[in-house]
Design goal:
single chain; 573 residues; alpha/beta; Heat Shock Protein 90; Rossmann fold; five-stranded mixed beta sheet
Length: 573
């Protein structure tokens, strides 16, 4: 109805124009003033109703709105039809006055097809009021001219009504299509909103579960490291090593889920830094060799002489890819051999190929294995375990490096995974590893540890005390600020989620006070179970100098201290 009202208002000027034309070009107003001014008054009333509909029509509804629409059309169309009838009655077929009104009436009736397309009954009323009175007069007058005029008017009337019905159907179809499209768009918007809400819920769930799992895992792994660092009977050492190994496996599963979440979100950024390529490959060999020996198969390891000692790229991610592929090869092989071949290809590319003589993969399952949480056979997960994320993550990381991970396999004959990535040779010294950085750590540091979990406190104090550090322990950010105000420390070790005030808020407050009081900047390392996408950047942007996600190894803690701790003489010993 809103669109119909708008179209009616746009037609107001048409009726005013015919009144002006009659005055300027014909003697109608002078010869028949009562008819002329009576029709003009009705038209003015109809135009006034149309304007009222424009401003107040949205407030009206139901029968009243429909009545006002019919009134608006009737008050303009009826006097127009009456003028047309009177011009024929008073002046005849051959007079200029009749010609003017016939041109206007036929044009107005034809032009109204579009204006009245939304409401068929208004169209019928308008055309009928314009043409039927003159049609009736033509039939009444009879004769050749009258009959011809009546037949022509009848044809025009039928044509206009037929066209009106067609336009109305087309308009209704367009409305239906528009409504369908709008409904589809609303559904898409709702689906998008639901997907975004689900993604947010998933991220919150992962963040919460990651934090809640990492905190007790840190206690298990940390205490296992502390116990293993001391003297133990052989049987007890084996038991603690089993505990530590199981917690490492659980951590690996959790990290795979978080890694996949990061890759799927497109938030993984690869580094382009020098790294010791051959040393990394040798470390991988030393990691896999005991597993091969334990399972009783051969380890084939071939690195071409053309492979550079050092390369430029993301060594950590490359190691992750190879460890995933080698781990799968070892898992699914019970006899024969597992191998790695590294060969130089034209340009800066290296071709890395992992082979095994294991169970193999059916041809129709070879693309499925690159999908998340998928394995070639449902029984495999029960026999061999795993999340089904390792290959999905590896394939996406290889793609980010500009390569493609491919597989060639035959059931019972083993598998071959291969990819080529650009790794230019580097002449620069590689970035120090955690072990190397830990070796440079300065002993005897005065450290402030803010941690509310009792087990995590024991782990951190035990690991740090073994390196000769002096640790002051507080349980929240408020107490950390108070301790920092009272004393000087070489570094702050802060948990993030603590009662009263979290670690990040405490660091921000300390940074603000350092600036106001012109105090030395105390390095801060965040030791937190918050390990989701963007957490590291959020902490570093908040004034933290180092970041370690729980659970962490002792060497990683020592390396973090070596990187941020102040040089000797900057703190009171």
């Amino acid at each position: 109805m809103t669109e119909q009202i708008s179209r009616l208002v746009h037609g107001v000027y048409v009726y005013a124009s015919i009144l002006v034309v009659l005055v300027w070009t014909t003697p109608f107003a002078v010869d028949h003033p009562r008819v002329y001014w009576g029709c003009a008054a009705c038209m003015a009333g109809g135009m006034a109703v149309r304007v009222a509909l424009r401003f107040f029509g949205e407030r009206w509804n139901g029968a009243f709105l429909e009545t006002m629409l019919l009134t608006a059309v009737g008050l303009t169309s009826a006097p127009s039809g009456l003028l047309y009838l009177c011009s024929l009655l008073y002046y005849g077929f051959e007079d200029w006055t009749f010609t003017v009104l016939m041109i206007w009436t036929v044009g107005g009736a034809s032009g109204s097809m579009v204006s009245f397309a939304p409401t068929l009954r208004l169209l019928v009323l308008h055309v009928t009021l314009l043409l039927v009175p003159a049609l009736g007069l033509g039939l009444w007058q009879g004769g050749t001219k009258g009959t011809t005029f009546a037949i022509g008017t009848m044809v025009l009337l039928v044509f206009l009504l037929t066209q009106g019905v067609w336009l109305n159907r087309a308009y209704m179809k367009q409305l239906e299509d528009r409504a369908t499209e709008e409904a589809r768009l609303r559904e898409l918007e709702l689906a998008k909103a639901a997907a975004e809400a689900a993604n947010v819920a998933k991220s919150l769930f992962l963040a919460n579960m990651s934090h809640e799992i990492r905190t007790p895992m840190h206690g298990v792994m940390g205490m296992a490291q502390v116990v293993l660092a001391g003297e133990l009977p052989a049987e007890s050492r084996e038991n603690v090593e089993a505990i530590h190994g199981a917690s490492e496996t659980l951590l690996r599963v959790l990290n795979e889920i978080l890694d996949f979440s990061k890759v799927e979100a497109g938030k993984v950024e690869l580094e382009r830094v020098p790294f010791a390529l051959r040393r990394m490959l040798e470390e991988l060999r030393l990691t896999v060799r005991p597993l091969a020996t334990m399972k009783g198969f051969r380890l084939d390891w071939t690195v071409d002489d053309a492979v550079p000692e050092r390369a430029i790229g993301d060594g950590v991610r490359l190691r992750q890819i190879l460890m995933n592929l080698l781990g799968n090869a070892v898992k699914f092989t019970t006899a024969g051999a597992v191998g790695l071949r590294v060969a130089r290809e034209p340009g800066d590319a290296l071709r890395l190929t992992v082979t095994d003589s294991g169970i193999g993969i059916p041809a129709d399952k070879q693309q499925l294995i690159f999908e998340a949480f998928a394995q070639a056979d449902g029984t495999v997960s029960r026999r061999f375990g795993g999340t089904g994320l390792g290959l999905a993550i590896s394939a996406k990381l290889v793609a980010l490096m500009g390569g493609q991970l491919t597989v060639s396999s035959e059931v019972g004959q083993g598998s071959e995974f291969s990819f080529a990535v650009g790794l230019p040779e580097s002449t620069a010294e590689p970035v120090a590893t955690s072990e190397q950085a830990a070796a440079q750590e300065r002993p005897g540091l005065r450290l402030l540890l803010a941690e509310d979990n009792a087990v995590s406190q024991r782990v951190a104090v035990a690991l740090l005390a073994k390196r000769g550090h002096h640790v002051t322990v507080v349980e929240n950010g408020v107490a950390a600020i108070a301790a920092w105000e009272r004393d000087e420390f070489d570094a702050l070790l802060m948990d993030n989620q603590m009662p009263e005030m979290g670690g990040l808020d405490a660091v921000r407050e300390i940074r603000a006070r350092e600036e106001r009081e012109n105090r030395r900047r105390t390095p801060a390392v965040m030791l937190t179970a918050s390990a989701m996408l963007g957490d590291r950047e959020r902490f570093l942007d908040g004034g933290v100098d180092g970041y370690l996600a729980k659970p962490f190894h002792a060497d990683e803690l020592y390396a973090a201290l070596a990187k941020v701790a102040a040089p000797p003489g900057c703190a009171t010993q």
